[in-house]
Amino acid sequence: MLNAFIEPGIPVLVQGATGRSGRSQTAQMVEYGTNIVAGVSRRDDEQAKLPLFRNCTEAVSATGARASVAFVPPLDVLPAILEAIDAGIELIVTVAEGVPVHDALKAKAATREAGIRWVGASTPGLAIPGKLKMGFLPNVSLAPGSLGVMSKSGTLSYEVCYRLVERGFGQTLWVGVGGDAVKGVRFADLVPIFAADPATQGIVVVGEIGGSEEEELAEALIASGCKKPVFALLAGRSALEGVTMGHAGALIQANVGTIETKTAALRKAGAEVSQTIKDLVDMVGATLGHTLV
Amino acid sequence: MMLLEHHAKELLASVGVTIPEGVLLTAESLNQTIVNLALPYMAKAQVPVGGRGKAGGILKIKSQADLGPAVEKILGMTIRNHPVRSCRLEAMVDYVSEAYFSLAFDPDSGTIKILAAAEGGVEIESPEMREKLLQVSAPADPAQAALAMETLIALLPDHLRTIFCQVAARLIPLFFEKEALLIEINPLFITRDGGWIAGDAKILTDDNALSRQKEMRALIEMHPDLYPEASLKLAQGFDFVRLDPDGDIGLVTTGAGLSMQLVDEIIQRGHRPFNFCDIRTGGFKGDPSRLIQVLKWVASGPNVRSVLMNFFAGNTNLAELVPLILLALKEVPELRQPITLRMTGNGLEAARVILAESGNPIHVETDLERAVDRALAVAGEAAHA
């Protein structure tokens, strides 16, 4: 059941609701059908179409919000998370690019201690297609369907899901975990959610070099006994060691986080690892094609 | 960003760590630098990756006459795809043993990982050496890390305990103050008189913390030639990495993951991307200057025969983007290579109209596979022409 992770109608508040991107993204999330109940901002905003509050605690007690999506600058992400924890929020999505790792370490410790789910530091967010969107996964790549999607890269996952949707394969739930080195929800955390959800017939993993998240995912898949097909695409085969290629997490250091270690681990767990976007899309089609209506 | 050894050691020296005397040389400063080191001494290639000793990037200077040729050789090397841009000359160290120390974070648990060993050196990655590593974890907090370090020190041989107390007292605060992601000293030389010297140093800093780490920021600004990628990111707010000076495909792309994947797929198909690029259209805000900069760099690739632009407008609008591309192209007349523009998403039809009205002969594809096919075919034809 996906509800253990996120419910489609969960009441959501927006931190940083009056900023340039906060305001426009809030409008789009509302339009998508997300149950946005409150905005939080230090500033007044006469154009705001939502009830605005000075802090999360006030917003939660007035509206019953249980989840938050934060459109705040990178150095404000940690304070926003701590404020959401204090207010009793259960799940928080943060989207800012460039959150310092030492802030993410503190946020990770705090969210873990509070027992809440944090999707971030820097992610395009998550979506239950047709029902809820927290963040800005693009509408053209979203459609209700039978794939559980987990992704590090925004842009690569947009392209992959766009092509899958063109072929008739939508999603049950898509969680962008982000490309940071230190993050909240990791690939492995999503395995039990997708494994237990009867509507999810396959899992798509958009991973990349760096770190050990794909290796952990492989272990979690084996441990869960999940028999659903897993389709993985791993970017960064040709990345330079010692240089950051856009994502802070995509820094390979000697023998850790290489495509080879990740591919081997995932294949051992029974996953199909594709080298090209086209191969992944074809593989999903060949495996799940019978479910097409 | 991985600091070069020279800068990592200077940072260590600033908190009282003893380092071997040394000086940094670049091709420009070679003839103006006075070297006061006692012979023999070492010349060490400065690259942000390990394995330089095995690659021949560390040479012994036995006489003054060795210096010029050795430095010239080192500065001409490329070690694991990194061109050597500087070289550290360093005094030899008289030591009795080599130990190991590192501080890093564990991304999974979000804790700090401290490693120490009574034996260090280049073989630290070997399975036998790995077994001898002592390890403790602590919450990401200096006081807790110091406490955990005490339990680790208790497991070390007697003669190393005082030394590792000093190591911890200097490096744990440094790790947190500078928001480092890794500090590794290997080898950590133990001297005859019971002192210790950092033989080599790896410090990985957080690019995302530069706005509040003034000293790190100043270092990059002072050495744009030695840290080209970080310097660019700092000055321009996006990523551009020159991958292959002889590359035949220039890339103007957005998004780290998709751009990496495109590089991978192009290489797999037997072509050589000149660059990696995550231009971040979201940061344009109506200004074509990032595009102009990237187009200039791409145009400067001596073997670039074809340019591939890829814009998936999930959250941006192509009708706003295309006018910026047209403006930028006017500013970069030297870019004569044929362009394949893949665009899809918001504002596609309006963007097509704008392009058609401009009369610009850019080839447009909406499908990425077809765009890649076309860009590579163009490069192939140009190569055979």
Description of the molecule:
The complex is a heterodimer of chains A (293) and B (385). With 293 residues, chain A is of the alpha/beta class. Chain A folds into 2 domains: 7-119, NAD(P)-binding Rossmann-like Domain (Rossmann fold); 137-291, Succinyl-CoA synthetase domains (Rossmann fold, 3-Layer(aba) Sandwich), CATH 3.40.50. Helices cover 35% and strands 20% of the residues of chain A. Chain A has 9 helices and 13 strands. In chain A, helix 7 links the parallel strand 11 and strand 12 (230-235). In chain A, helix 6 runs parallel beside helix 7. The longest helix of chain A is centred in the middle third of the chain and has 14 residues, at 101-114. Chain A is globular, with a radius of gyration of 18 Å. In chain A, 60% of the residues are buried. With 385 residues, chain B is an alpha+beta fold. Chain B has 3 domains: 21-91, 2-Layer Sandwich (Dna Ligase, domain 1); 97-205, D-amino Acid Aminotransferase, Chain A, domain 1; 237-384, 3-Layer(aba) Sandwich (Rossmann fold). Chain B is 37% helix and 24% strand. Chain B has 12 helices and 18 strands. Chain B has helices spanning 5-13, 64-75, 127-132, 142-153, 158-177, 214-222, 228-236, 256-268, 289-299, 318-331, 348-358, 368-384, and strands spanning 22-25, 41-45, 58-61, 78-79, 82-83, 87-91, 97-106, 111-117, 134-138, 180-190, 196-198, 201-205, 239-242, 249-253, 275-278, 306-313, 339-345, 363-365. In chain B, the strands form 5 sheets. In chain B, strands 7, 8, 9, 10, 11 and 12 form a 6-stranded antiparallel sheet that branches. In chain B, strand 17, helix 11 (348-358) and strand 18 (363-365) form a beta-alpha-beta unit. In chain B, helix 4 (142-153) packs antiparallel against helix 5. The longest helix of chain B has 20 residues, at 158-177.
